[in-house]
Design a protein that fits this description.
208 residues; six-stranded antiparallel sheet; 9 strands; alpha+beta; globular; disordered N terminus; three-stranded antiparallel sheet; 4 helices
Length: 208
C-alpha cells in the first residue's frame, strides 16, 4: 500500500509538471502571436525602467551602491512572467576617474543580475540575486516588480581602491536581458517596443 501511494504521489507530481510545461509552451505561442500582431498592426506599449535615485555609501570599508528604480513591464513581459518564463534583469555599474580636462577610460565595471520568475506549484513569484543566490518570495507579480526596484548595498570596491583627492564618477543603468528569453521569443523581442527596457546611464559623484 505504501508503494502504491508513493507511486501515485510521484505520478501526480510528474503529471502537474508536464501540464505546467504544456501551459508554458502554449503561452509562449500566444505571446509570440500577439506580439507579432502588435508589431505589424499597431505600435506595442513599450515597457520602461527608470533610475529614480542612486547613491554610494561605505559599509565595513567597502563602497556600496544603493538605488531606487521604477519598473513598468509591458503587457507582453507581464504575460511571459505569469506564464512561467523567467525574466532576467541586469544592473550595470561603472566607475570613471576625472582628470582636469577629460574623463579617464572607465576604471571599474561590474554587473549584478536578478531573475524574476513564477513558481508553478505555489503560484508565487521569486526574485533571485544570481550573484549571492539570495531569494525573495512574493504573493503577486506586482509586489515582486515593486521590490525589484530596491537595490541595496551592491559592493563595488574597497575604499582603499580610490585615491584621495581624485574625483570619481559612478554610473548605473538597468536593463532587461533579451538574450535570456526563450529562443523562439528572441527575434520578436528584438524588434518589438514592448520588450525594450533600458534605463540609460544615471550618473553621480562618489561620496567619501
Amino acid at each position: 500500500m505504501h508503494l502504491i501511494n508513493s507511486y501515485q504521489t510521484e505520478t501526480s507530481y510528474l503529471s502537474r509538471c508536464k501540464s505546467y510545461s504544456v501551459r508554458v509552451l502554449r503561452s509562449l505561442v500566444v505571446i509570440i502571436s500577439t506580439t507579432m500582431i502588435g508589431v505589424t498592426v499597431s505600435p506595442a506599449f513599450a515597457g520602461s525602467v527608470t533610475v529614480n535615485s542612486a547613491i554610494t555609501d561605505i559599509v565595513n570599508d567597502m563602497v556600496v551602491v544603493n538605488a531606487d528604480l521604477n519598473f513598468e513591464f509591458s503587457d507582453d513581459a507581464v504575460e511571459a512572467a505569469r506564464s512561467g518564463i523567467a525574466l532576467f534583469i541586469d544592473v550595470d555599474i561603472r566607475v570613471k576617474r576625472k582628470r582636469r580636462f577629460i574623463w579617464d577610460p572607465r576604471v571599474l565595471t561590474l554587473s549584478r543580475r536578478y531573475s524574476v520568475e513564477r513558481h508553478a506549484l505555489t503560484d508565487r513569484y521569486i526574485i533571485t540575486d544570481l550573484v549571492t543566490t539570495d531569494r525573495r518570495i512574493y504573493e503577486s507579480l506586482d509586489a515582486a516588480v515593486m521590490d525589484l526596484g530596491r537595490i541595496r548595498e551592491i559592493p563595488i570596491a574597497e575604499t582603499s581602491s580610490f585615491d584621495a583627492g581624485i574625483e570619481y564618477n559612478i554610473g548605473l543603468r538597468t536593463r532587461l536581458d533579451l538574450e535570456s528569453l526563450p529562443a523562439p521569443l528572441r527575434p520578436i523581442a528584438y524588434i518589438s517596443p514592448s520588450w525594450r527596457m533600458s534605463s540609460g546611464w544615471y550618473q553621480w559623484t562618489l561620496n567619501r
